[in-house]
Amino acid sequence: MANRSKLSGTAALEDIEGVASQAYLASIVECSDDAIYGKTLDGTILSWNRGAERIYGYSAAEMVGRPVSVLVPPNKPDEVPAILEKVKRGERVSHFETTRVRKDGEVIDLSLNVSPIRDASGQIIGASTTARDITEQKRMREALAERAKEILDVSTPVLQVWEGVVVAPFIGTLDTQRAQQFMERLLDKIVQTNSAVALLDVTGVPAIDTRTAQHLIETITSVRLLGAQAILTGVRPAIAQTLAHLGINLADVVTRSSLAAGLRVALDILNLKIITQEDQAKGAHSL
Amino acid sequence: MTNQNISLVKVRNTLLVTMPADPDDVTVTTLQEEVLGAMEEYRPKGLVLDISAVETLDSFFARTITETSRMVTMMGGQTVIAGMRPSVAITATQLGLTMVGTFTALTVDRALDLLTHLHPRRRIR
Amino acid sequence: MSDLARGNIPIKSENDIVAARRVVRDLATQLCFGVTDVTRVITAASELARNVFLYVGAGVMWWSILDRSGEVGLELTFEDHGAGIPDVEQAMTPGYSTSRGLGLGLPGVKRLMDEMEIHTEVGKGTTVRVRKWLRK
What are the structural domains of chain A? Predict the structure, then answer.
């Protein structure tokens, strides 16, 4: 059997890898933060790098010669056999997220890459596993998702972009409760900032269904009742078409295809001292 | 009994009418009568209806406002509804009260500005 | 679903429409509904009370505070013994109005409330029940 070094466990590689230079391999394996370990096709550990010692808490001496199943949590008895089956067929397992148990009993989240080890004749004689500790990553991912949900929950921002102009990105996928909250927040902001114009930007709306259209029309109507001018910006042909199909007449709503164009209209309105009856007929019914 | 008084003053050749918080039907009807009387007497260029204190706008109130507005227009003036509360604006929209034919303004100040700059004689029929 | 409290007020005059609004405002405010929801409920009550007074002349508004597995709600029931609504479906169609041009405003009321039930029988009377639940 191989000469097992108590210090690094990489000596076992001598038996397995014949193609690449051992020193080169040793350096990659040792410097890596990832756990890299080799095992036989029945799961017996043959090599165990420093990363593996750090991640799993077992020294090389403790792990070499033992079955890899000691690392597997009791609720996943079939996982290693399934992985080894794939490897025997010459397949690789990539970015497989799972859990393993450290020496101290702590359960950690890992991302595994397992590939076949071939001898000089090309026959598969073992499996090489690289395991990356993603516990921290996973925790951050979950925190981020939670935070994103919080942000969406708490507010769709209504921004005052100019004296007298507020902009609100219209989000179509809001449920009824959030849609109501959006309207309230928008109207309160208009009153609070004494704004004459509210730009409702639908650039980010992927699709308009009946409910979204109703919410949109209600928002526009409420803004006008309040006494401000609503301008719909970011209306792409597809959206205009859908609204037309839904029987919604946008003729009395000021629309622009881009937020920038809408802003220009807003500034015009603010500068306008005299509102002619022609403009009124076109729909500028409020100041 | 809460305040049911409508305040009506003439400001800058405009009628400024201030509604109480929860006007009963009689008060709402009085609004129309008082406005018509004042239009007769002063011939102002318009009516500013200040509803900033109003908590509930039901269909009866809304109908009276639009009727009054139509009469004001027939007498050569324009009507601006000022100060509608957000909660009232949303509720009115959802109830289906669109107040067609009236102008709206965020505040009485803006309403007066709006009327000052309108030229009723250039109305397009 | 259980009843935590209930009461009623008669509707037989224009003043009763105002009274209905006041009662509903007090209830909705005490139940801690948001300002817009309070406005919605009061407005719905005003519309339905007015229907009773306008078309029948007399009726009753019942109110109850409901508990549905921890969820709190306000229920208003408008009951009259009038002519009944001949075609409820038509009355519920947006844009429909009676010959007097006033209409019952039922589609609008439905939009303001969470739940609405109408029981009507020609010659016997009508009961309109609406509910609004407190949002978490």
Answer: 10-134 (3.30.450.20), 153-282 (3.30.750.24)
CA torsion angle B12 B17 B20 B24 (round to 10): 180
Output the six-digit token pair for A253: 């709503």
**ipTM entry:** 0.91
Give the nearest chain C residue to A178 (CA atoms).
Answer: C135
pTM, whole model, 2 decimals? 0.68
Antiparallel, parallel or unpaired: β A124-133 and A197-201: unpaired
How many of the other CB atoms lie within 10 Å of CB of B87? 24
Task: Give residue-wise pLDDT tens across range A136-183.
Answer: 777 777 777 766 665 555 556 777 777 788 989 887 777 888 889 899
User: What residue in C sits closest to A188 (Cα-Cα)?
Assistant: C36
Please tell me what DSSP assigns to residue C60: E
C-alpha count within 13 angstroms, C-beta hemisphere, residue A280: 23
In angstroms, the separation between the Cα of residue C37 and the nearest Cα of chain A is 10
Domain span including residue B33: 7-119
Q: Which of C14, C35, C112 sits opposite B94 (nearest CB)?
A: C112
d(CA C8, CA C62): 4
- Cβ neighbourhood burial of B51 (10 Å; 0-12, 13-18, 19+): buried
State the Cα–Cα distance between residues C48 and B48, nearest whole angstrom.
29
Dist. CA B80–CA B102, nearest whole Å: 6
